[in-house]
Amino acid sequence: MADILFQILIYLGAAVIAVPLAARLGLGSVLGYLVAGIAIGPIFGLVGSETKDVQHVAEFGIVMMLFLIGLSLDPRALWDMRHRLLGLGGLQLVLTTGGIMLGAMALGYPAATGLVIGLILALSSTAIVLQTLSERGLIKSRGGRSIFAVLLTQDIAVIPILALLPLLTVQQQLSQTGGTSNTLQQPAPTTPHGQSVENGLGLTILEGLPGWGVTLVTLSIVAAIILAGVYFIQPIFRFIHATGLREMYTALALLIVIGISVLMTIVGLSPALGAFLAGVVLANSEFRHELESDIEPFKGLLLGLFFITVGADMNLSVLQHDPIGILTLAILVIIAKGFVLYLLCYLFDIHGRDRWLFTLGLAQAGEFGFVLTAFAVQQNILPQTLSDRLILIITLTMLMTPLLFLTFGALSQRLKDKIDIGIEDEINAQGPVIIAGIGRFGQIVNRLVQSSGFETVVLDHDIRKIDLMRSFGIKSFLGDPTRPVTLRAAGLLEAQVLVVALDDAAACIKLVKLAHRARPGLHIIARAYDRAQVFELYNAGADDIVRETFDSSLRAGRYVLENLGLSDYEADTAAKTFYQHDREAMRDLAQLWDPKIPAHANAAYMARAQALEKHLEAALMSSLESSRPTHPQSIKASNTEAAPSKPDPTILKDE
Fold first, then answer.
1. Do residue 526 and residue 590 come from a single domain?
2. Which of 51-60, 66-75, 310-319, 528-537 reaches the highest mean pLDDT?
3. What is the pLDDT of residue 72?
4. What is the pLDDT of residue 421?
């Protein structure tokens, strides 16, 4: 018992130390788990032969991950994305696998082995890439959406790949034995589907059945999983819900995943395949989110444990004996994948910075490569020596991912004034108001101003937004608002107001500085994402700065106060007091803000912010106290008298 607890302590301690450090350095959690495993395994030798046993348990996290992937995929949404999934994602897999397969064959590997190597290295790191895109705010760009489509295709493709690999076992064995029996090379017992069987479970059920019987049993179990998901899971969940026992949700979620895994193991199919299928069936279930929340912690811990065991079991002696060769192969994998991805950008009309984001963002190998490599070794498709080299190559390419995104950042800076927006329009209209950026924010501003009888000049560098505005009959011009020539053509020197509503924060700062320098008397209204951007825009010369969620949050807070018993007048007074105090506080704090120092590390800024917060509390209490006797007629009656029998639909309207 003490030994088990000691091992748990080592694995958890390594994860708690290494993963947060890796995340803070921008390397991602997967690399953190791998580094933790390398530290406790090859480097310090804190774990040993028991790593393989731990890995067998941790592999169940893969089953859970594929269940959650299936659970997040609405079949109708998949159908709507079919062109991008099959086209962009499918071609990436086929071309990359084929190219790496040819390279492996050129190095002397058999075709079947080359195919497995190609399939393993064709996949990219979903965990690292999506996390990096989210952190950099690139997930909604065209390149980010294209990356997501390819990663989704790869995640789905893991299922048929897992089903395909056992079929290659027979071919490998026949090619090694020349088609004759050899007792020295007799493979381990397998089920009719090629899965290795150590406990005899699959053979016990299917042994002696003819081919049609095996097929019938397999199809029956798959059909049973689908029917159970459609007709039985929801009634069971409702029964569990009626008990009011929260832990039963977790027990049922684990029962579903484990039960499906056992059924698929009986017929020799991959448990991951059954879990994915069940997830897709339950994707539209009303209990989908309950399943996700119950399975997610187990999936995260087991997957993290799996990556730790991969790192702990890594054979660093291979890297020590041939560091240049392994590193060269890792770089060649990135180059080969990058070449295919860059070619796809031309085929699918991905331009400018999005092209480089797509190319560099997916050029590494991924965590599913570890899964497929371990599975291929279990199926006797790949020898252990080749598996060790593949794991090192995958790990090195993943470690290079931050460098790839830094390269994209450098290229993005060089291309920021060369965004491929097509041929810019000739701006033949001028007005008192220039609106730069016609996204959701700019659209509302434009509608209000135009509906009030004032003319606007709308600029945006996104052709899709311009086409959308034109389809509604709104005159707008395609052009980069941060270019001086575009601003002058739009009437910068004669306009009264400039509205800066661009999505790119850096472009907003650049435009405000440019306009303020060219026309100091121009009134500039700018949209800000957060307080830091407010201060930057203030220093750049903006006159009015609007945080995009501030007004809506303030209105929501007013509704909360009204439903807590305050009258409409009192809640409105509190909201106005808060608004006025916040404006004054922002001007005050702007004098202390230093872009080179994080806010929490700026002592003067934090001290003033805390003092202003106390002033706000005093101001709100004073305003509420003064409003009550002055306007007694506006105070609400008691809750029992004032509460309506049904929710008031007017509070749902967008004011």
1. no
2. 528-537
3. 72
4. 43
Give yes or no: residues 531 and 600 share one domain: no
Tokens 């790192």 -> residue = 311
Tell me if 461 sits within 8 A of 478, measured CB to CB. yes
Whether residue 347 is found in the same domain as residue 447: no
- Are 525 and 538 in contact by the 8 Å Cβ rule? The answer is no
The yes-or-no verdict on residue 620 having pLDDT over 60 is: yes
The enclosing domain of 543 has a CATH number of 3.40.50.720
70 closest CA partner among 234, 218, 283: 283
What whole-number percentage of the chain has pLDDT above 90?
15
Arithmetic mean of pLDDT, 507-531: 90
Alpha-carbon distance of 643 to 564, in angstroms, equals 11
- Residue 324's pLDDT is 92
Residues 28 and 159 occupy one common structural domain = yes
Residues 368 and 510 in one domain: no
Instruction: Give bridge partners of residue 523 from the DSSP assignment.
Output: 497
Contact 157, 93 (CB under 8 A): yes
Residue 280 · residue 70 · CB < 8 Å: yes
> Is residue 652 assigned to a domain?
no
Residues 170 and 306 in one domain: yes
Which residues constitute the domain of residue 353? 2-180+187-411
Report the 10 Å Cβ neighbour count for 298.
16
Q: Tens of pLDDT along 580-607?
A: 888 888 888 888 888 778 777 888 888 8
Give, as one character, the DSSP assignment of residue 313: T
Contact 535, 589 (CB under 8 A): yes
Quick: pLDDT tens for 335-347. Answer: 999 999 999 998 8
In a domain, 227, yes or no: yes
Q: Structurally, how many domains does the chain consist of? A: 3
Look at residues 359, 390, 411 and tell me which one is the last residue of a structural domain.
Answer: 411
Q: Provide the token pair at 255.
A: 């029962």
Side-chain-side CA neighbours of 555 within 13 Å: the count stands at 10
pLDDT band at 80 (very low <50, low <70, confident <90, very high): low
State the chain's maximal CA–CA distance in angstroms. 101
CA atoms 178, 179, 182, 184: torsion sign: positive
Q: Is there a domain that residue 434 lies in?
A: yes
pTM: 0.55
Mean pLDDT value across the chain: 79
What's the distance, CA 52 to chain centroid?
Answer: 30
Six-digit token pair at 484? 């001086």
Task: Specify the range with the lowest mean pLDDT, choosing from 281-285, 444-448, 473-477.
Answer: 281-285
CA atoms 90, 93, 97, 99: torsion sign: positive
Residue 619's pLDDT is: 80
Q: 538: part of which helix (H) or strand (E)?
A: helix 531-540
Strand-by-strand arrangement of the 497-500 sheet: 477-478, 456-460, 433-436, 497-500, 523-528, 544-547
For the segment 201-228, the average pLDDT, to the nearest whole number, is 68
Scored b (16 or more CB within 10 A) or e, 321-347 reads: eeeeebeebbeebbebbbebbbebbee
The model's confidence at residue 114, banded by pLDDT at 50, 70 and 90, is: very high
**What whole-number distance in Å separates Cα of residue 86 and Cα of residue 149?**
9
Q: What is the pLDDT of residue 177?
A: 46
**Cα–Cα distance measured from residue 338 to residue 345, given in angstroms and rounded to the nearest whole number:** 11
- What does DSSP assign to residue 426? P
**Does the CA dihedral 185-190-195-196 come out positive or negative?**
negative
Handedness of CA 307, 312, 315, 321 (dihedral sign): positive
CATH of the domain at 388: 1.20.1530.20
638 in the same domain as 535: no
Which domain-ending residue is among 523, 548, 573?
A: 548
608 domain residue, yes or no:
yes
Residues 583 and 505 in one domain: no
